């Protein structure tokens, strides 16, 4: 069994609290991504799993065994580093066989295992090359082969693709998913790249300021963020602040800074006079040319008859983003943006009057402290 349990682990360096009271259970055989901005504590957390760092407090369990004080070389883990850490004076084959040699495997056995692993990562034929002759993607494959060659129960990957260009990163993401499925090992993967985490992970653990703020499957953390930090970190969104003016059984009405009134799902915390910020994700919004006969005075949002609201504005910018087009709309002092697939593009141009629409059920509501208001 290669499940991992972290119980209240913290790590401080003098006055710096790098990791603060993290509890986390990683399932046997899953690929869990630790995701967060630079300096949030994700790499330090991984290093405590590996044994390269010792927690200031708390305990680390691997396969049910307390390994908190166990040296890194005594743990059945292997790590792939961001900078590959290949030996430039050894051949590719010698690099992959290095861990096997340290473990005491015989020459023939370790060379055969190394060759088999190089074939698995599509690097057969490069056995006698020097790492200095390889591209970044090839170096990453060799580093991955070296870590897998020792057949660890747990593979730890610390931003392993960050030095690769976009195309190579995407190729290696698919390769890593295939390798994880084939080898049936527990993978812990550290990244600051949201797209990478969503592509790879069975579950994502999101960290901020040394704390683990949410753990869940990719769709869960994206659609149901626990707080404003998670919502903001996982992708671009429109944040609009306002104050509740009235409430009924289904909705509260939020008077916004730019004069619009937006309906929000009713909840215990949604009461007249309360201040909130709502998130309108651009991919959940619709844009269409405005029908002058349907316009309301000013920019007040109105019910559109389909469980949502609309607001009128003028297109200030259209930004082509490859697979999508972003429309930046001035709604009377507040700029909102909507993202639309190029296959659904409307031909709307800058300067046109438009209506932005959304479903009220897609709105997320946050308190001033950043915590999420739930409508359950």
From TrEMBL:
Name of the top EC class for this enzyme = translocase
- List, alphabetically, the Gene3D superfamilies matched: 2.40.50.100, P-loop containing nucleotide triphosphate hydrolases
Query: What are the record keywords, sorted?
Result: ATP-binding, Cell membrane, Ion transport, Iron, Iron transport, Membrane, Molybdenum, Nucleotide-binding, Transport
Where does it primarily localize?
membrane
Any idea of its EC number? 7.3.2.6
Q: Has UniProt tagged this entry with the keyword Cell membrane?
A: yes
Topology versus the membrane: Peripheral membrane protein
Q: Which reaction does it catalyse?
A: tungstate(in) + ATP + H2O = tungstate(out) + ADP + phosphate + H(+)
Which Pfam families does its entry note?
A: ABC_tran, TOBE_2
> Known SUPFAM superfamilies for this protein?
MOP-like (SSF50331), P-loop containing nucleoside triphosphate hydrolases (SSF52540)
In which compartments does the protein localize? Cell membrane
Q: Which GO terms describe its molecular function?
A: ABC-type ferric iron transporter activity; ABC-type tungstate transporter activity; ATP binding; ATP hydrolysis activity
- All copies of domain ABC transporter, residue ranges: 4-234
Q: What Gene Ontology cellular component terms go with this record? A: ATP-binding cassette (ABC) transporter complex
Per its UniProt entry, which superkingdom is the organism in? Archaea
What does this protein do, in the record's words? Answer: Part of the ABC transporter complex WtpABC involved in molybdate/tungstate import. Responsible for energy coupling to the transport system.
The family note in this entry says: Belongs to the ABC transporter superfamily. Sulfate/tungstate importer (TC 3.A.1.6) family.
Q: How does it assemble?
A: The complex is composed of two ATP-binding proteins (WtpC), two transmembrane proteins (WtpB) and a solute-binding protein (WtpA).
Protein name in UniProt: Molybdate/tungstate import ATP-binding protein WtpC
Q: Name the species this protein comes from.
A: Halobellus salinus
> What taxonomic ancestry is recorded?
Archaea, Methanobacteriati, Methanobacteriota, Stenosarchaea group, Halobacteria
